[in-house]
Write a structure and sequence with these properties.
The complex is a heterotrimer of chains A (283), B (274) and C (260). With 283 residues, chain A is α/β, with parallel strands linked by helices. Chain A folds into two domains: 2-243, Rossmann fold; 245-283, no CATH class. Chain A has twelve helices and eleven strands. Chain A is globular and about 65 Å long. Chain B is α/β, with parallel strands linked by helices. Helices cover 40% and strands 22% of the residues of chain B. Chain B has eleven helices and ten strands. Chain B has helices at 41-48, 71-77, 94-104, 109-122, 138-150, 168-183, 195-201, 219-222, 226-231, 238-244, 258-273, and strands spanning 2-10, 16-25, 30-35, 56-61, 64-65, 78-81, 156-160, 187-191, 204-209, 212-218. In chain B, the strands form two sheets. Chain B has a six-stranded mixed beta sheet, sandwiched between helices. In chain B, β4 and β5 form a beta hairpin. The relative contact order of chain B is 0.14. Chain C has 260 residues and is mainly α. Chain C has two domains: 2-123 and 226-259, no CATH class; 136-209, no CATH class. Chain C has helices spanning 2-5, 21-37, 41-57, 61-89, 96-122, 125-134, 139-167, 178-184, 186-209, 228-250, 256-259. Chain C is flat. The chains are: A alpha/beta (283), B alpha/beta (274), C mainly alpha (260). Chain A binds chain B through residues 38-41, 91, 145-146, 169, 172-173, 175-178, 180, 202, 205, 241-243, 245-247, 249-250, 253-254, 257-259, 268-270, 272-273, 276-277, 279-283, and chain B through 36-37, 137-139, 164-171, 193-196, 233-235, 237-239, 241-242, 245-246, 249, 258, 261-262, 265-266, 268-269, 272.
């Protein structure tokens, strides 16, 4: 069952001369972990904004084509309605937290939706525990690290219990270790809660292993869409300028020069080590 | 040349960010300073152009101690490119933005024009000469910020987290650009936690932890030293991750370059075929 | 500025800190009205002394004294200006009554400053925001308030970073004549303003994405409940106001010169 479905989606920002996305037709199934990537300016951020209605409602502009999220036509529902089904986590940790204490921030969406206090308390505590920030719930957002701030943003989205969580380059400002932690949290949510994840990222070396579906975009169009191992072995992907994981690239370079490493394209270093060990094991 | 001698630095709030650090950077060297957030990397490099003055110990740039001169004077030899270009951009045109520092340093009109043209060309920005910097994309703004710092051709260039938010191609272009600058004799200091980027550049790597230097050496050595990296909470670059697990097959441990890796593996494969 | 020191909240716990901000505010209004009513030194002195036990109970005496010190400049100006005005009015003669009046005006100013100081020193921005949310103030305003407070340290840090970035390009803030110095701040202000605008846009996106505007009557995770201490404080506030009004209406207050 598709939770996100678009047909020939195209969008032009108000005042822009060219569309930011053109002819985008994708399908995201329930429980998918989708990775969307592509060079800067390819339209991935624009696409994300379409998923929860920021486009077209907040940004205005011209949106053509069809888009259904959680079965609802985005153009016909306000963002605050769609927020119950789709949560969006943004790039800058600092600029999505407004309250003076972390737990109040996590409750923000629920307060907006008018939930009664007891239920809010329950959901907030649940979300805080899932993202492992229960201990810092009374601190001010500014006092904690970028990685913790992003986890607060994720908890804030989780509290509303959406079906889909969309994350737009959530680790851009974080160091690799904090980034790793965020990806583990997201992966955990995907596995345990069956939450559909749409992740926009450049760091494929850290994220390719979690995805079951990769979409590559370039200049507003989708140029590759499918299972990670296929998409990343595809020559177009590398040509478009996407930074494929080094392990994958090494595999391709070696295979091209005749080394027999099996058919499964590795997505991470441990997979590559296995392939190499088997291929080079002393007889 | 930058000589750091026994520097300690304490913020007014009482936090001691640098706890006794000594370092020498020779002219024309390319160094990468790495470490966890809070290790003191940015605090350290801010001492080089005098933005911060040590609580004790000395820093001398080209023989002049930073406490004995002004930030403006030091900046003539030390260009500092901040992480976020939007913290610098304020002019009506890219041209004016690049000319800003030149005007501050008191260059004459002819030199300013020459340098502005040179900087615009260096970073492929000539087409945006009369454009407002605010109209440009994120990547273009980063180039404008870089151009505005290179404009006065400082001998030492410090880049604070230059790869944040950049896609693969942009990082590749940046890497080549840095190597180009280095070949021109500039001293380059980058502060970063992008291990893959550092692995591709293979500079001298300095690892910091809690205000001290815990490792200092060639990129190859440091980035494959699992112990040191773990201590500074840094992830190994992917190629190194692979090779540290292939030791039992007789491979060297200090491999970080993908082409070197390919060559070694292919040779081992061909040897097995015979 | 040390006057602002007196307005900064400190995370200390005392009975006064735990009082409901709305009640504390009523107290401040009571003192305010009482101070306005009187132009004589004796009642104003009484009001001043009355606040001291609260300051001590709240354990904020050090910051409180600092705020008084900060207000000293303004207080002295008020005293001298009043004195000057009356001196001219009396035909360039210095009358004891006028000195007393000027001192009373100064004391009134000080009483007002210190009562607000006690309020802000013992009320965290969170509590203040919460009180605003739970009162009849439209949510947009209390949200604007708490968000502003939340971002003050962020903006301060950003301003510092921008200054560093521009200094690294040779900008010398201290150099030049008066006009040049003002122009020196343009490279600091513009990035700061642009950044603030960009930030507001991102915040708006985040707010929309978290269902802002879904329901007319928002609920609240926290609830401010009134306790016994609040009732007590309310009684004190009303007592102060009632006594002040009674004295003002029926009791002739002697001036200092009359007593001496």
């Amino acid at each position: 069952m598709a939770v996100i479905e678009t047909k020939n989606l195209a969008y032009t920002y108000p005042g822009a001369t060219r569309p930011s996305i053109t002819d985008v037709s994708i399908k995201v199934e329930k429980g998918d972990f989708v990775l969307i990537t592509g060079p800067s300016g390819c339209g991935k951020t624009t696409l994300c904004r379409c998923f929860n209605g920021l486009i077209p409602h907040f940004y205005q502009g011209q949106l053509t084509g069809e888009i259904l999220v959680a079965g609802q036509d985005v153009t016909k529902h306000q963002t605050h309605e769609l927020a119950k089904h789709v949560g969006l986590v943004f790039q800058n940790p600092e600029n999505q937290l407004f309250a003076l204490s972390i737990e109040k921030d996590v409750a923000f969406g629920l307060e907006n939706l008018g939930y009664p206090r007891a239920e809010m308390r329950q959901r907030v505590d649940w979300a805080l525990n899932l993202t492992d920030i229960y201990d810092i719930r009374e601190r001010s957002p500014h006092e904690v690290s970028g990685g913790q701030q992003q986890r607060v943003a994720i908890a804030a989205v989780l509290a509303m219990q959406p079906d889909i969580i969309v994350l737009d380059e959530p680790t851009s400002f974080l160091d690799p270790l904090s980034a790793q932690k965020i990806f583990e949290v997201i992966h955990d949510l995907n596995k345990r809660l069956g939450l559909t994840v749409v992740l926009v990222e450049h760091r494929l070396d850290l994220t390719a292993r979690y995805a079951n579906h990769i979409i590559i975009m370039d200049e507003g169009r989708v140029c590759s869409d499918g299972a990670p191992r296929e998409v990343l072995s595809n020559e177009t992907t590398r040509l478009v300028g996407v930074g494929i994981p080094k392990a994958t690239l090494l595999y391709q370079l070696l295979s091209k020069d005749g080394m027999e490493l099996g058919n499964m394209t590795p997505l991470a270093s441990d997979e590559m080590v296995k392939l190499l060990s088997e291929a080079l094991e002393p007889r | 040349m930058i000589v750091v001698r026994d520097v300690r630095f304490k913020y007014p709030s009482g936090v001691e960010a640098i706890k006794g650090l000594s370092l020498t950077v020779k002219d024309g060297e390319f160094i990468a300073i790495m470490g966890q957030n809070g290790a003191g990397k940015t605090t350290l490099v801010k001492h080089i152009n005098g933005l911060l003055k040590p609580t004790s110990g000395t820093i001398a740039v080209n023989g002049v101690e930073t406490t004995k001169t002004t930030i403006a004077t030091l900046s003539k030899s030390v260009g500092f490119v901040f992480q976020n270009p939007d913290h610098q951009l304020f002019s009506e045109t890219v041209e004016e933005e690049i000319a800003f520092a030149l005007k501050n340093f008191g260059f004459d009109k002819a030199t300013i024009e020459k340098q502005v043209t040179w900087a615009l060309n260096l970073l492929s920005l000539e087409q945006y000469r009369k454009t407002s910097p605010f109209m440009l994309s994120g990547g273009e703004r980063k180039r404008v910020a870089l151009a505005s710092v290179l404009a006065w051709d400082p001998e030492i260039l410090i880049l604070d987290e230059p790869t944040i938010g950049q896609d693969h191609e942009q990082k590749e272009k940046l890497r080549q650009f840095i190597l180009q600058l280095q070949s021109q004799g500039k001293t380059i200091v980058i502060v970063t936690h992008d291990v893959e980027f550092v692995a591709e550049c293979n500079p001298r790597v300095i690892l910091m932890k809690e205000g001290k230097i815990v490792a200092d050496g060639e990129g190859k050595e440091i980035l494959t030293n699992t112990g040191a990296l773990e201590e500074s909470s840094i992830v190994l670059p992917q190629i190194a991750q692979i090779f540290t697990q292939l030791e039992h097959l007789g491979f060297p441990k200090d491999v970080i370059d993908i082409y070197e890796a390919k060559a070694l593996l292919l040779k081992a494969w061909e040897d097995r075929q015979t | 500025m040390s006057v602002f020191d007196g307005l900064k909240f400190r995370r200390v716990y005392s009975p006064i800190h735990n009082l409901d901000p709305r009640i504390k505010f009523i107290y401040v209004i009571a003192v305010f009205v009482a101070a306005i009513l009187f132009g004589q030194i004796l009642p104003l002195l009484a009001l001043f002394v009355l606040q001291i036990p609260f300051v001590l109970l709240a354990r904020v005496h050090r910051q409180w004294l600092r705020s008084l010190r900060g207000a000293l400049f303004l207080a002295t100006s008020i005293f001298l200006l009043n004195l000057l005005f009356h001196w001219i009015n009396a035909g360039y003669v210095l009358l004891a009554a006028d000195i007393e009046f000027s001192a009373a005006m100064t004391l009134r100013f000080i009483v007002l400053v210190e009562s607000f100081s006690v309020f802000f020193l013992t009320t965290s921005p969170d509590m203040l925001g919460l009180a605003l949310e739970q009162s009849r103030v439209p949510y947009e305003f209390s949200f604007a308030f708490t968000t502003a407070v939340r971002f003050v340290p962020v903006l301060a840090e950003e301003a510092q970073t921008i200054m560093d970035a521009q200094k690294a390009r040779g900008l010398e803030l201290e150099k030049g004549g008066f006009m040049k110095r003002i122009r020196n701040y343009i490279p600091i202000l513009i990035p700061l303003i642009v950044s603030a605008i960009r930030r507001s846009l991102e915040l708006a996106e985040a707010m929309e994405s978290r269902a802002w505007g879904a329901v007319k009557k928002r609920t609240n995770l926290y609830a401010l409940k009134l306790h016994r201490g609040d009732a007590g404080m309310l009684v004190i506030a009303v007592a102060i106001l009632a006594t002040a009004i009674y004295v003002w209406l029926y009791v002739p207050v002697p001036t200092l010169s009359q007593l001496l």
